[in-house]
Amino acid sequence: MTCDAALAQLLDMGIPRGRARAALKRSKGDVMSAAERVFAGEFDEISSDDEGQDDMQPVPGALKDQNFVGLQTAEQMSSTSTICNTDAKRTRPSSSVIDDEHEIIASDSETDEGDNYDQGFEEEDVVMSSDKQGVDPYAGIFFSKNRLEKIITPLKKEYYALVALPANRSKKSGPSTNGWVRILDKGEWMSGCPEGNEQSLLFQLYSVLEEGRIACPSGCGHSFLRRKQNFFVLFPDLSMYLAHLSANLRSTCPNCQIRICLACGERTGKWPSERGSAPGRGTPHSLEENSRQDHWPQDDVLLHCPNIQGVILGVGLRMIELAFAGEGEKGQNTAVALESHAGSDDRDDDTEDYYDQHPDIHNDAVGSFMSHRKGKGVGYAGTVSEDRSGQIRAERAQKEADDKTSTLLSQVSVYLPHLNREGGARVSDHLVHPTALAHVRRRSAFVNDLLRNDSLMDMSKRGNLYRVLFNWLEAVASHEALASMLAMPQMRPIRTEPAPHDSHFVMITYEGSSSPRELLENCVIQAQAALKGLESDVDPEDVDEVTEEDLRLTNAQLNQKKGRDSEACKENQNIVLKQFCLRIISTAETIDGSLVETKGKPFERARDASTNEAASNIYEDWAGRARFQYCDMSIGSENSSNIAYKHAFNGVIQKMVGMDLPKRSLAIAKELAILTTSLPVAWHSTIFLRVDIARVDVLKAMIIGPEGTPYENGCFIFDIFLPADYNISCPQVKAMTTNGGQYRYNPNLYADGKVCLSLLGTWGGPGWISGQSTLLQVLVSIQSLILCEEPYLNEPAYANESGSTNSKAYSANVRRMVLADAMANNIKCPPFPFENEIRTHFRLKAEDVRKQITRWKALDDGQAIKTDDHSPHSGTQMSKPSKGTPFDQAAEAVRQMLNKLERQEGIRQDASGQEETKNPGQGIEGPKSKE
Fold it and tell me: Which amino acids are annotated catalytic?
């Protein structure tokens, strides 16, 4: 190849002229090596406009010496067949470069090692050694949902070639029936938002398979012809493409009679049917051939090497993209036009511009559209019956589109790498071609579009498509090289505009969006809610599978079909929905397991944090508004001079009625002003405060147990009274969450309600400082110092026993008490005045609490609850239940309460975040106070 032609190829790839010249010089004129070096960032220090050239301008006629046998268009391929990704027009973070550890292209010094994916490279080949199989190929790439990328790409232009059609799919008889088929050109092959050195890899594979001639590996002197229409063609359906590929993939050398794979250039042996006529010749070369039967199925031929894997996934996923985007019908009408060339094998030379040769296709399509009859309309003079023909046509079109997409997806999924493939894993299952990874990552927008469906019923009605989609997701998740893609934010095109300086190109802006796993979580939430609402307990394995057609039938039609009454039909539909919901949850669990195995525990924590972000924001927004409020704590009485209060310090409160203490009132007013905005609010722990509307010295607090402690998510109520000499002296505080005076939750929280804290003067240490200490300090001290990770250590005598058996046993006992009382009892009979806050807290954190119970189960020691003594080996021990451990009983009670809260229809959350009761007689309704 001449120097000018090599430079033109690099310019067509969007590489600035200065970098292209430097790369060619260092690579000694090797285009592939030069492209690899540029995309790897080796020449980033060279300015993109160092020569004052318009780097995006293609060079006309640059590829004249390329072999385009059987493919002709009105213009040279050089103007439209490559994608431009200029560094000058693209902003990438410094972290978005694959480091040496994860590099999947060999350098000059590595060319003698590894397995070559692409034949035809003399100096630099694509390699992936076996010790790299467990490495995430995108580990060094920066992914973010807030990321924007601008990519320069050529305008789409369709190219056609005349190829031999599969005989069994032709509309005309004869083995040599030919037809015009659209080519997937290099620009379309490389389209999408690139990462790392993907563009170089895609360019290499395409160039290798279109380069023209490949020498026979035996050295006999014969060369085989390779053409792009053998590999990169877009038939109306994938089965035609696979048949075409099978027919053109292998070729026999006329000199030495060996058969080779045109995709990789390796010797594959003779066809089994030919072995009998030529004994001893054409012995299979690969390990796969040793176990070959008397025939080679089509799938077996197409699983031979990583190169063909990359081709099939690239073409197949592109076909799915077109079908999902609604271009499938157009493709069926225009992609293939049959031409009879019976007895002619000279199809390579019979290619011309397709539109010039067949202008009637466009005219026929327009004429067909214009010939449609106009609708009569519905009005005063029209028919009074409802015209549902449009809806019926839309439903039929949707079903046809779904069927086509699901068929394509099922067919393409066969060629995803499967380590547990039936018949044994192939080479491409272990050594996945990097272009296969690139295509799966780039061309999965349809997956996200389907997962964005916010209607579980619609997903269930389109169950066939979604079941195939779940199969696809599980297949991707099952392979370590692909699994991480399910957690990557996907780059979606959001805007297309003309490229600057060149009308033949456009600039596409890509934006990071939610990952498939993140979108699947919304489906999981819907499925879990639906399962809770289903009353049927029928085991899905005990019933016959109900088809999608059955779901579309009315109850009457189902009765006629199956001879059941309407109630049985309703039960059948519930079973189908239940099966569908279980499948959604199962798919999510499969993906999660693979992601944890591939990416590790840190990734799991990051994923959970991302998934919980929305719920956390909702919770904190609600808690921020609900943390400080006034309420009436008085108990009505006929004698207005004798007002009682729902409060532990009622007697003291009544004695101070009518007292005028201005300094105290001023101190309280200042503190309350601070508390309105200073109370801690977080997903992990929040403090709620209620102040009597008439007596601001009468308060109640509820502290949510902090995350990571035995008190996590429990609701702990405290009654607070500000005495007459406040704030010279400390407030009076009593714990009210004691299960009726039975549970001692902490060495500093007694069963009688006493709170031991130095600020309260009930424990040694820094005490209350007049005029400086505040009620907020008291509340935060209880939250952080008493409700702590190892409560056993709060007893001075045991302060040095961190992590001891006694400490673990004490924490396990606290967790059982929290489940039984601070959770279950509080949900069942929420204490005044925190009824709404307790219900809302557990409703918003229901799923988090369920996960917490699972974690706690692994830490439980199976003992009964010990109630009123600090020692883990003494105190009153409640009798063990007859069924299950005490922990299991308490956990089940909490789960049941959470389920009731989620199913409860009487209570809803209004726009302000407060709850309203439609019907006070419904749902969980206990006494307003436990006092």
Answer: 756
